[in-house]
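Anyone else keep sequences and structure tokens together like this?

Example one:
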Amino acid sequence: MNLNPLPDFLVQQNKGYYCRYGDFYLDPLEPVETAVVSHAHADHARPGHRLIYTTAATSVFMQTRYTRQRKESYRVYGFSEHFKLKEVDLYFIPAGHILGSAQIMMIYQGVKYLYTGDFKMQEDSTCEPIEIEQADVLITETTFANPETKHPDPVEEIKKLNTTQINILLGCYTLGKAQRLTALINAHCPDKEVLVHHGILPFHRIYDREGFQQLTYLPYNRQAMKVPDQNKIYLVPPFTFSSYMRAKNVIRAFASGWKRLQHQNGIELLISDHVDWDDLLSFIEQVRPQEIWTIHGDGRHLKDYLSGSIAVKELR
């Protein structure tokens, strides 16, 4: 059976990526009637929608962050649980990005369109591991889609924190990254004590309740961090990290896949929650799409690399 993907199945609009065949948006940036949300990071999950289709963990994170959003708005589905929006059949697949993160499979007229959201293939004990299914059209993020980008082993990166007993000010994203770092530190830096900024604490507690393992940490203690050589690591969100440029008696580090965020830090910590070039190619090989539509990044390297084998276009 020859299935032809529709070039306008998903189009980019000001509010987000819109599917007119199901009359819904994927990860819309402005309030819409019907939103299908891949995960709870703020650049994908916004408030104000009348209906929000998402996973259980994502709904909990959104309710924690967006307290004015009506709880009745959420339509929660488990992974692999099908639901229908008009004539489009949808279901969620674990994306391995953060707890509750999902790829979104959309099936219309027999054609499978797979939206990755943000995803990673590295091991992460704090969230559901990625699952890979074949699709006709792959709609993928290309955050690090560059042959020069190779993410190092996160275990070897986190072990860098063992090279000093001086307290460490560790900048990280509040949701997902902070919890992954805590688990890595607990496992591979056993002499280190994790202190958590008040802005991160609510999400640690949700991970404790909804996630896959108990994290070991304490709320931030100002006095404890003032004493040098105490083997403490203070996890702080990016804004707080930037405001502590002149912090004394600490070594600065920021956990990210972006090398530009490593400048002026005492320890380089390249830990990313996205796929690098090799993992993206491996993922594509397993999905086996006829076409690839790129979003969230620069897809030019991918288009050049796959020229003559798979059609690649930027979604517009």
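And example two:
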Amino acid sequence: MTKSAPDAPAVRIRRIYEPPAPDDGTRVLVDRLWPRGIAKADAHVDEWPKALTPSTELRKWYHAGEGTYAQFARRYRAELAEGEAAEALEGLRSVAAAGPVTLLTASKDVEHSHAAVLVEELRGAKG
């Protein structure tokens, strides 16, 4: 179970295919590619910071089954610590501090996805 810092922001993950909920707050798509079968008008996405997403190389490596989730999370955190990704993460932290945030993803296994790593980063917890 992931532990949160005492004043952790309200952040959750939802699949983009689920209808928006009134308590979603700011809806942030955290996938690099636009999800199949969803019209942009129907997605109700407030932000789409592509710099926050795993690199294409890392995404392909993980989806090919070449590493474990723990290895993926470690490599993704390293990417989040540098350059545009670090700036985008700080921006998302600011948004999360201002109110609830819902991270949207097309991932079927959200508990073992980059979105789960982002939630841990935003809440100040490490898996």
